[in-house]
């Protein structure tokens, strides 16, 4: 599925090039009795610039060539033929093609420079975020071990135990951060290999909750799964990570005493799973971005995390041919909706 998506993304700019040339040709047909053909060339040149700015040199060159052919075939007499009786138009075609190639090259270079600068800024911001998330547990672990190794400290057994528990908790947090970074690298580099097998949804949800029972604690998890729900085809370890990230998100962003609801039903050829919390909810302006890498809702500064969990979940679910989205009402909580194809 990822290969199909990549192929579609590569073909799309060229389809847009054809569409723009078609639009400019229609516009030229309406105006060819009012404008000289050489003036209509400017419409095609505009199409070349648009494509070059948005998609780069390759599609822009294709737009230039198609523009020359369409201009000659439809807008230069004799119409509907590539023959040219007026020798002057040959210079027009040649000049337009050269100008189109030059414009596309220059525009593409400017675009590449802009993208490079934006990428450098993004990399800097991401490195700062990652370094902060990695540094915090490392500093805590180092401080804890230093206190334990200090021969002058008069720590009793209980205090030493508490320090060791802190170090263990920070080590687990550090392991989760590194694991998330590795998972993100795998899911976005195209090396994710999905091996799907039939899976009973009840057993799967049970395994998820067992994995995070320490985080759940005394929280009430309400489960409502439709009777006779069909099996879903998933790669169990990967899909487990996807669901764990979503459930963990619901636990982190809702009050300790509030319940978490997990519902599942079959709709057509898909199984739809709802994971609902009763926290503050997600602001409308954040709903469209919560699945982006490193994005976190601004109000929740006290919640630890890298902002990778939901992005990883989306990549894994989409690699299975599924879909995930979120709905929310401020003050009433958020609901994550996961759709997976049945086995």
Verbal overview:
- The chain is α+β, with helices and mostly antiparallel strands.
- Helix content is 61%, strand content 13%.
- It contains 10 helices and 7 strands.
- The longest helix has 62 residues.
- The protein is elongated and about 100 Å long.
Key traits:
elongated, 2 domains, 7 strands, two-stranded antiparallel ribbon, 343 residues, Heat Shock Protein 90, five-stranded mixed sheet, alpha+beta
Task: Name the shape in a single word.
Answer: elongated
The percentage helix is: 55-70%
> If strands are numbered along the chain, what order do they take across the biggest sheet?
2-4-5-7-6
The major pleated sheet works out as: 5 strands, mixed
> Which consecutive residue ranges, at least 5 long each, have pLDDT under 50?
none
In short:
This protein has helices spanning 2-31, 37-55, 57-75, 88-149, 157-189, 201-211, 213-216, 236-252, 284-287, 309-319, and strands at residues 197-199, 221-225, 232-234, 260-267, 270-277, 323-329, 333-341. With 343 residues, it is an alpha+beta fold.
């Amino acid at each position: 599925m990822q290969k199909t998506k990549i192929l579609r993304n590569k073909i799309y700019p060229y389809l847009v090039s054809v569409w723009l040339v078609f639009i400019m040709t229609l516009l030229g047909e309406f105006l060819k009795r009012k404008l000289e053909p050489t003036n209509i060339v400017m419409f095609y040149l505009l199409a070349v610039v648009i494509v070059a700015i948005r998609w780069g040199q390759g599609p822009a060159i294709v737009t230039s060539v198609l523009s020359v052919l369409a201009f000659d075939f439809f807008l230069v007499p004799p119409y509907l033929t590539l023959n040219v009786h007026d020798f002057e138009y040959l210079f027009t075609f040649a000049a337009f093609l050269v100008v189109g190639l030059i414009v596309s090259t220059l525009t593409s270079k400017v675009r590449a420079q802009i993208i490079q600068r934006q990428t450098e800024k993004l990399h800097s911001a991401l490195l700062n975020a990652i370094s902060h998330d990695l540094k915090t547990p490392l500093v805590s672990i180092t401080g804890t071990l230093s206190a334990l190794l200090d021969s002058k400290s008069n720590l009793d057994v209980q205090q030493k135990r508490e320090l060791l528990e802190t170090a263990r908790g920070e080590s687990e947090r550090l392991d989760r951060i590194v694991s998330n970074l590795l998972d993100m690298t795998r899911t976005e580099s195209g090396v994710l290999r999905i091996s799907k097998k039939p899976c009973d949804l009840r057993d799967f949800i049970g395994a998820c909750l067992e994995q995070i029972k320490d985080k759940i604690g005394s929280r009430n998890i309400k489960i409502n799964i439709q009777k006779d729900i069909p099996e879903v085809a998933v790669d169990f370890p990967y899909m487990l990570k996807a669901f764990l990230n979503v459930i963990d998100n619901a636990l982190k962003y809702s009050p300790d005493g509030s319940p978490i609801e997990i519902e599942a039903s079959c709709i057509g050829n898909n199984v739809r799973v709802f994971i609902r919390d009763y926290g503050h909810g997600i602001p409308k302006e954040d709903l469209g971005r919560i699945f982006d890498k490193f994005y976190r809702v601004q109000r929740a500064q006290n919640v630890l995390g890298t902002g990778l969990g939901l992005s990883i979940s989306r990549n894994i679910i989409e690699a299975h041919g599924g879909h995930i989205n979120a709905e929310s009402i401020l003050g009433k909580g958020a609901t994550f909706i996961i759709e997976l194809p049945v086995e």
